[in-house]
Design goal:
By secondary structure, this protein is α/β, with parallel strands linked by helices. The chain has one domain: TIM Barrel (Alpha-Beta Barrel), CATH 3.20.20.390. Helices cover about 45% and strands about 15% of the residues. Strands 1-2-3-4-5-6-7-8 form an 8-stranded parallel β-barrel, surrounded by 8 helices. Strand 6, helix 7 and strand 7 form a beta-alpha-beta unit. The protein binds SN-glycerol-1-phosphate. The site of SN-glycerol-1-phosphate has 16 residues, from strand 8 and helix 9.
């Protein structure tokens, strides 16, 4: 089993280096914006590119990866909203268990269906305990997963969920307010999870500026994910990266 991306993330954590992941929606309306996002990700020295979405309406996954890969060396990691989002063109896939929910399909069902395809594609798998957190509005992720997110003011639920994920052998924790969340996951919740586990912690949803990214890193996040804000203004990535990398 490959572990190139896994090792890169763990090495950065060991060196106390925070990382920036740029989330790209393969449905990105036009190729010009896709190219601009990748160019700004390069300029920002972003560490990872996540690619995926809770609901995709175009069949553009492979084509998007080819475009991205023609423009950058940054590893492309699938962030799949469903079993349809698998591509051998990517470097790795977040093998997500939706541990905040109690939907068996997203805890094991989809994994069984996708495992042979992932194996055939020779994709590196990143076993991830994925938690949706209620950050103010019903997101596509919460709706599509038919699951209840963790309440915003319940850091102890997040901490216990992260602990269980670590005990089950997950290698990463991803706490997500969902794309376009009104506000990011609270620093109290991030601190509680960081105290509870030794795993790299990925935080996404509603992070729109450098100051917020810095606060979230300080609370214990190892990887900051930025999606919506970069689509609206790709050049914000440079500012956010400076805060994340502490440049
Ligand atoms: C969503 O964590 C990601 O799953 C990123 O969210 O689009 O709000 O940055 P935003």
């Amino acid at each position: 089993m490959k572990s190139i991306v896994h090792d890169k993330i763990y090495a950065a954590k060991a060196n106390k280096q925070k990382q920036l992941a740029v989330l790209i929606d393969p449905d990105t309306p036009d190729e010009t914006l896709l190219r601009e996002l990748v160019l700004q990700a390069n300029k920002a020295k972003a560490d990872l590119i996540f690619l995926g979405g809770s609901l995709l309406v175009k069949d553009a996954l492979d084509a998007s990866i080819k475009t991205i890969k023609s423009l950058t060396q940054i590893p492309v990691i699938l962030f799949p909203g469903s079993v349809l989002q698998i591509s051998s063109e990517a470097d790795a896939i977040l093998f997500l268990s939706l541990v905040s929910g109690r939907n068996p399909e997203l805890l094991i069902g989809s994994h069984v269906i996708s495992a042979p395809y992932i194996k055939q594609a020779q994709l590196e798998t990143l076993a991830t305990g994925y938690m949706l957190v209620d950050c103010g509005k019903t997101t596509t992720a919460a709706y599509m997963s038919a699951s209840l997110p963790i309440p915003y003011h319940k850091p102890e639920i997040a901490a216990c969920t992260a602990m269980a994920s670590e005990m089950l052998g997950q290698k990463f924790i991803y706490m997500d307010g969902g794309s376009g969340a009104d506000k990011p996951v609270s620093t109290e919740m991030i601190k509680a999870v960081q105290k509870a586990v030794d795993l790299p912690i990925i935080i996404g949803g509603g992070i729109r500026d450098a100051a917020t990214a810095a606060k979230i890193c300080e609370a214990g996040a190892d990887i900051i994910v930025v999606g919506n804000a970069s689509e609206t203004n790709p050049s914000i990535l440079v500012d956010i990266a400076k805060a994340v990398h502490n440049d």
